[in-house]
Predict the 3D structure of the following.
Amino acid sequence: MPTISIRSLSEADTIRGIWEGWQQHPNADLAHFQLICGFRGEVKHPYIIVAERDGEPCALLVGRLERTRFAPSIGYLKLIRIPATVLTIVYQGSLGQLDEEVAEALVSHLRFLLLSRKVDAVTAHHLPESSPLLKFLLNRCSQWLLKKSPEWSTHWEMVLQDKPGFLLKKLGSKHRYAIRKRERELESAFPGKVSWRWMNRFDDVPGLCSRLEVVAARTYQRGLGAGFVDNEEHRQRLVLFAIRGHLRVQLLEIDGKVRAFWFGQVYRGVFHSDATGYDPDLGEYQIGTLVFLHLVDELVKEGVRKLDFGLGDAQYKQRFGDESWRETTVTMFAPTAKGLLLKSVLWGCSVLDRAGRRLLEKTGLLDRIKTGWRKQLASKTMAGAE
């Protein structure tokens, strides 16, 4: 099966109709992909592989060729960063009719790219366990090319029912009582000043971003280098989705000031969670849960029937999610000294990370350390924001 590569944004426009017909997730949306390529300085150029069947495109593998720093982690720590040229296959970047034959053709293209020594590694992010591409990589590729012991994460979704309040009713009576009590306590602490605001139309996205930043700057996610940041890339992303009617934002305002938020995109009938944050000073009120309940009720009113929690596992996702699957990130390495170095570093960090997690799980310390680490990060970011 023949494949060709597209290496510029202008070339990508030649397959716009096909791409837009196949895109199912905001991360792999063509306009979003073009925006990210234009904003990030590490991106050398797009790299889209087109597989053809009977002379017509049948699948796309969407990636960015990046001059970056390879930085595997041990827990939350990234102890080493090695300059490298990496082809990053974006999350949800396999589009079209991806069967075993197509997967073989795409992997053959990637293998040829690695053998040409034009890239040091290829990373495909969060491939679902059912993906033909993942199955081919794990079952048919050489041990030299990639580490074949996948590290799985769980991806959660929740099916939304047709009446607001359904989620609260699903909870146990004690949990339901505790949440209602926290909301009453919040109202009592700030009488007449608490407002839950749902936004699906926007006339000032930059102004909204400035208001969200006040909260985001004080979260533990900021200490991890994750979550929402009020920069030009995020502003343009939200403008893009707002103009097209995808953006949804749930705010908690107290005395006119944003104290918590949760936003995402409604795309092809599914709400994709993007970022959330709350003022840590309000932690005693279970603000995260309260914001989520209001968010879900508003989505139900709009007729949205599914909520995708996004990447990463978390206790609240397990509590509320009712559908899940496993995902893993796969990295292929060039048969060069640089490729061997990168693979060795990834392997070493992976071994240390797994060993540490097993030890902490056996001693019951894992959740405590996570909580303590997040509190420490939150306190540092709060001090920096003051």
Notes: Residues 337-363 form the longest helix (27 residues). DSSP finds 14 helices and twelve strands in the chain. The radius of gyration is 22 Å.
